[in-house]
Structure formats: structure tokens, C-alpha cells
Amino acid sequence: MRYISTRGGMPPRTFREILLEGLATDGGLALPESYPRYEAADLARLRKLSYPDLAFDILSRYIDDIPAADLKALIDKTYTAAVFGSDDITPLKTLEPGLHLLQLSNGPTLAFKDVALQLLGNLFEYVLAKNQGELNILGATSGDTGSAAEYAMRGKRGVRVFMLSPLGKMSRFQTAQMFSLTDPNIYNIAVRGVFDDCQDIVKQVSNDEAFKTRYAIGTVNSINWARVLAQIVYYFKGYFAATKSDTEQVSFAVPSGNFGNILAGHVALRMGLPVRRLILASNENNVLDEFFRSGCYRPRASADVHQTSSPSMDISKASNFERFVFDLVGRDASTLRKLWASVDGGGSFDLAGTPFAAKLRESGFVSGTSTHADRIAAMRWVHQRFGVMIDTHTADGVKVGLEHREAGVPLICLETAQPVKFADTVREALGVEPASPPAVRGLENLPQRFEAMDADASAVKRYIEQRCR
Ligand SMILES: *Cc1c(COP(=O)(O)O)cnc(C)c1O
């Protein structure tokens, strides 16, 4: 399997060559040359597999430059009941017939990003050891990516993590989870600004090729292809758990921010999984909902980002979205480059009235927006009706999912975090305290370690230089 760039300017590369990189060399995003397809007979076989075996079957079609036995060992070491709480890894909880929660948040940081990042930590350590290399991971987070990355990389040989987060804008629990880590290879940088300022700094530093090479800068942001890859697995797992035969269709409701999670659903669909609809849920920052309803993609200025009670979806532009649009325009890099010339210049594009509008309607995607009042109502509804607590992001997915629910089509809502991570809003909605898993009790009382900085790429560079001497 070879990987190409959405902007068409990168010679085809192998998985290991793109694993440690963020943006492709031409500023685009890496994608496989094609998506391997599963036929009906394959689905019957996959249905019987355990999570790690399913993961190996899928991942080995995209990764052919790690020996199969090594890849298998890395996957088996990652997806264990000890790390994810059960052998199912991502158990399906049925609320009522035809309505399910796919529980993706049973990993160490209680959010779905662990599913991908725990694997990434093991992949990075393996590849760096083979290459005798070092890696300085530079990332931006609005909460869950950062903690999941740090918990995946803590103590890993050859890796340092420099994680930028918007100062004072994460939940108390998220802040405690990240800033209480004392591992010497973990550095928390709290930026005076919003998430997009953090993301822009990462881009600026990564665009400085000399600096990037000298300090072996890598990324674990949601644009990392291996993360998308790892997430494809649970769409298959969820499908098999919610159906009895391989001819049934299901729909997935996905609370979305940077478009990484639902992109994996799109790839699963393209691989032959019988998906009827991919239901994208936005919060008040609904740039993606606007696109899927109108065809117009109009990223916001970072000053226009609302701070919401589902903060991990507070984005102004969706970093993975370019991959989807590349597929939508028939993988024509020159069309993609034209669209992104406008986006990268602070503008927008509109597919309404172009031949791509019809393609968009056939893509399987539908969407909706959920507000604070909506998510509170969804949390109450699920609690009162089924006795189950859900977090604010999952609630956005449930709200929009129900709007698009169809009779006879199972609806699988992805649970992306546990309620305890957003306890203030849970209390507001339900009047009760969400239960704390034993592993995280007392976290908020631990001492915190971070460096506060202005939104200035050169200051961040200096900080990294000093730590890499
Ligand atoms: C990251 C995150 C999301 C958004 O996922 P994307 O892949 O960025 O679309 C939703 N919910 C939670 C809890 C998250 O951490």
C-alpha cells in the first residue's frame, strides 16, 4: 500500500514513511492510494473475530512495511482488557431495540481518542527503536487529544511530548488529567488564546522545515493517518454487535470536531461496510453542519469560536475534512488545491451548483447542530428513559442522531467520552454527580505542572530547543 497527498505533490510513500509525519511534504494530507474492499464473504469471516484480530485484519491491509508478526504483537499489546476495561474493547450498549451506544471511552483518559493513541504510542516506540530515532511530538489540544496523547506516550523511549492547550479553556478534569503528569518526557504548554491559536502554532513550527528536521518534530494531531486507521476498526465492531446478518444496514451518529472520527466511518463505508448514514453532529461551532446542509464550507476566524459545554468539538475549521473532500471531488488534486487555496487564504468555497453537490447527497452524510439546551435535554432524556448517564459530546450525537433516525435501521451513537470528564454540565443536567472510575479519583487535587505562554510560535520553538539540548 502506498500513500499519496491530497494536494498531489508528494511521491508515493510507505506507511512507515508517513507514520511520524503530520502534513504531507506539499502541505496536504496523506491518504492511501485506494481503499481495500471487503466483500460479503469477508464480512461473514470478520464478524467472528475478536477486537485485536479484527484490528489486525483491517490494519494489515494498510500497513505492509511492518512484518505481520510484529504488527500483530503491537495490536495485541494495545487492545487488552487491562487497558480498555473489557475484552470487547468498544462494547455496544443497547438502550432500546434499534438504539445503541458504542462505548469508545473506556481507555486510560476516558475518551475515544485512547483507542487510536494507545496504538500510536506502541507503533511510534517500535518504529523509533528500529530507526534508532528520536521524536519530539508537538500537538495542539482542546482537551481530549492532549491527555490521550500524553497517556499514550508517557515513558515511551525516544519520544518527548510538547502539548499546547488554550489556557483556562479545558474542563477542570481535563486540565487535571494532563497537568498532573510528572513523566519527564511530557511538557504541557498553556497558550493564552483559543484552540485554533494552538493549532496555528503547530502549523507554523511544522512549516519551518529546517527546525522540523533538526528537532525531529512530529505530530499526533487528528491528521495523523494511523489514528484514522485505528478508528476504522470500531465501526466494523459496532456494526457486527448491532446486527445479525451482513446484509443489514446501520447508521452511525458521530459527535464531530476535527472530522477524524467520522472520517474513519467514511473509510469504513468505502471499504464495504453496510452503512446507511453517517450522521454528523456539530455543537454551536457548526461549520461542518453548514457544509453538509448547504455545500458551503466557511471556516470561522478563531475569534468567532464559541466556548461550549462540549469543548472537544470547539473548532473553527476541521483539520481532517480535506481528506473527505479529496474523495468527494473524485480524488482530483488540482480541484482540491483550488478549493484549499481559498480556505488557506482565510476564505471559503461553495459546492452548491457544481457536479459535486450531487456527489455530496450520495455520500451517506447527513448532519445537524446541537446547542447547550439540546445537549442538556438529551442527557436528561437518556438518563430518565434508560437510567444511563452520557457526557456532553455523546449527547450532541444522540440529539442529532435521533433527528435522522429511520424505522428499521439500527442507530449506533458513538460515546466519545465518559460523563465524569464534564462533571459540571452533568450536574447541571441531572442534578447528580457522575461516578468516578477508581483510576481517576482524587486527580483534581494533585499538583499541576505547566508553562503558560503567549500565542507565539518563536517562543514555543525556543522552549523546545532548550529542552532538546
Ligand atoms: C475529539 C473529540 C470529539 C471530536 O472528534 P473529531 O475526531 O475531532 O471529530 C468528540 N468528542 C470527544 C469527547 C472528543 O474528545
Helix content: 40-55%
What gap, in angstroms, lies between the N and C termini? 37 Å
Number of strands: 15
Strand order of the largest sheet: 3-4-14-9-10-13
Largest sheet: 6 strands, mixed
Query: What is the CATH level 1 assignment of the domain at 92-110 and 228-430?
Result: Alpha Beta
Bound molecules: pyridoxal-5'-phosphate
CA gyration radius, whole angstroms: 21 Å
β-sheet strand percentage: 15-25%
The overall pLDDT average reads: 94
In the predicted model, the low-confidence regions spanning at least 5 consecutive residues are: none
Corresponding CATH architecture of the domain at 92-110 and 228-430: 3-Layer(aba) Sandwich
CATH fold category name of the domain at 92-110 and 228-430: Rossmann fold
Task: Label the structural class.
Answer: alpha/beta
Shape: globular
Number of helices: 20
Describe this structure in words.
With 469 residues, the protein is of the alpha/beta class. The protein has a domain at 92-110 and 228-430: 3-Layer(aba) Sandwich (Rossmann fold), CATH 3.40.50. The protein contains 20 helices and 15 strands. Strands 3-4-14-9-10-13 form a six-stranded mixed β-sheet, with helices on both faces. A five-stranded parallel β-sheet has the order 8-5-6-7-15, with helices on both faces. A two-stranded antiparallel ribbon has the order 1-2. It is globular.
